[in-house]
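Reviewer comment 2.1 asked that we show a complete input and output for one of the modelled complexes. We chose the alpha-D-galactopyranose case, as it is the one discussed in the main text.
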Amino acid sequence: MSTSSNLVVEKFYEQYKSAARLFYSPGRINLIGEHIDYNAGFVLPAAIDKGIWYAVAPNGTNSARFYSVDLDEHLEISLDNIHPIDGWQNYVLGVIDQAQQRGLIIKGFDCAFGGNIPIGSGLSSSAAVECGLLTALNEVFSLGLDRKTIALMGQKAEHTFPKVMCGIMDQYANMMGKMNHVILLDCLTIEHRYLPLSLEEYSIILINTKVHHSLASGEYNVRRQQCEQGLKTLQSFYPDAKTFRDITPEQVQEHESDLGGDIFKRCLYVTQEIARTQKAALLCEANNLEGLGKLMYETHEGLSKLYDVSCPELDFLVEQARKYPEIIGSRVMGGGFGGCTINLIRKEHWNTIVETITTEYKSTFDIDAEVYEVATSDGTYEAIGG
Ligand code: GLA
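Response of the prediction step:
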């Protein structure tokens, strides 16, 4: 799937016979800090140059009309009757609902959208859909929302319509991204700092297993519940601990039998990853990419063995990556259960190495992996009018 801005504008005109305003809403990568945005941790995401284009214009009616260019599907719905509808529809309707819940006035509008974020691949197409639409509506109807509020409303929309109890990372990266920077986001205070990302002789390469996950399938929400349960148990021993940030991996280890099997593993991972991400931020600031890469490999171990959100295809790609000193870091990215690995690879070798890995992958799983070289981008913005 690769829909360009021109195609979105063209399709908008074809469908609705009027001009529109055009917005770019990026996907995201995350260098490190996985599954800890909902556990009071830190994350290091960035918006990227793969995203969704939105063409939006008021239509003078009381209905919203959507056209998904990628799927060639339509939706027309009265603004008096916004309710969940399974599929991509939930992601756009959820944000309209959020706006209405806040008493914001949204009038009828037409919208065409499409882009080049592979869906269900850990690059957060869902946050791009949510925050892209909300930004467009904010501009078109002068709603007066600031970027952080849009991110928070996008997250809430995901909780209430598709019912994925996600953290704030994806929506925040989508709105706050800054080209050539990663965002060091403190998910407890929801405050951030930008760290310059100077890759120099390295590239960020994503390898898509093409194994599709659906976070909505429930496993994501199960992880979240397990963490909540684990934290409660730990708080009974450490009553001063408000969040996982106040608990060390050693303390978790002391209570292995109180926590029990899976919950113990989840809590150990979370506390380790919180510490790891703080270290990673310092290394990133010092531009020590080799150090950061080592921590990425450690994160993969944790996500695979303790948090159980990897799969044989992802583990295979990371195992292959380990064979090459040129790949200084590799791990599953995003929610997991499939999707992409993120790899830090020496520029001059990446093509041949990645080709060898994807050939091995094909002969093992009979799947053609996809490979993307990504660059960082600014957060959602308005482009030229259509
Ligand atoms: C998904 C969620 C995020 C985050 C990641 C895992 O992308 O939307 O909030 O929890 O998984 O780090």
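The pocket of alpha-D-galactopyranose is lined by residues 34-35, 37-38, 124, 166-167, 169-170, 334-335 (CB under 6 Å). We note this here for comparison with the apo prediction described in Section 3.2.
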